[in-house]
Amino acid sequence: MISKDRYLSSHKWDLMLKALPYKLPTTVVGHSVLNQPINAHRFGNGAKKVLLWSQMHGNESTTTRALLDLFNHLNTSKGEKLLTCITMMIIPQLNPDGAKAYTRVNANDVDLNRDALDLSQPESRALKEVFDAFQPNFCFNLHGQRSIFAAGKMGKSASLSFLAPAADAQNNLSPARIQAMQLIAHIHKNLQKDIPDQIGRYDDTFNPNCFGDRFTSLGVPTLLYEAGHNGLDYERHFTKKMILDALVLGLNAIENGEFLNCSMAEYDQIPENKKDYVDIIIKNVDIRTETGFFKKQELAVYYQEVKKGESVVFKPVCHSFSKKIDLLAHRVLNAEKILKLSEVEFNEGRTIDIF
Ligand SMILES: [Zn+2]
Hints:
This protein is an alpha/beta fold. 28% of the residues lie in helices and 29% in strands. It has helices spanning 10-18, 62-74, 77-85, 96-101, 122-134, 175-191, 211-217, 237-256, 264-268, and strands at 2-3, 26-31, 37-43, 48-54, 86-91, 138-144, 150-151, 160-163, 199-201, 222-227, 273-274, 277-289, 292-308, 311-322, 328-334, 353-354. β8, α6 and β9 form a beta-alpha-beta unit. The protein is globular, with a radius of gyration of 21 Å. Residues 342-355 have low confidence and may be disordered. The structure holds zinc ion. Zinc ion (ZN) is lined by residues 57, 60, 143.
């Protein structure tokens, strides 16, 4: 299986922006390790300021693609009205080198979202400098998550996940954290009709090296948005639409203050993200390994994402097998009904023989 859309280099992104029928206000706010420009776009002139950044992990492109739809939204009459109340600063690709290489890390092999205190990397420094100069009232930290997450123990696939990060090691409910929780609760409530029980919440252990925790501790409500997985939509077109809806819901709520009606209890009720999914479970497989021959097993398979040219290839890799796999899958196959096992392409990363 292959996806063209999931691969989003800065070159490809630039072409997408150039194809827009309007020009984006653009400034260069820094340069990557490999000297690619880091661009930011500023919109509106409202009193409430919102800073958004995406693709600080280069292989998480879905939220960046949703930003293109957000730009289009901002160009409508509804968007224009929003921008009279809100000023936005958007950095679509904080890690252009990682975007090009399709890696989480930057060109120095550093996870930028563990560099919020050290600021050892030019990309991290660019984000902190924009934060200091812009002085946002809210931040949206945009990411993409693997297809392994369930919204709650053995729940539905987490199509979106959120976190209102902790502000300190004691998990105190600081004013900034409370506002982030209320805003997430508002978004969660309003998306239930589209993705019922498919929104998860991340664990809130404090990590000041993460930008969300760092900015929350500096007093700015910061929301982690994670584009997740839905069904067999590996291109993540559906998730992109849900991210756009979640962004517009968040921005509108900041504008009209509606989220302040939500309670922290509503945030706490969002089910926690659990690693309960694999991509495929194949039933009734006979398996031979170095240690023996196992009949009628259930085999769990996950996809490893590998850049190939201008695309992402999903390589099936064996996760585990047993008589009864205690996991959920986006696709369940029965080996007895598969005419060719090559359908699931077990050529790469194979550690066992399947019959
Ligand atoms: Zn990420």
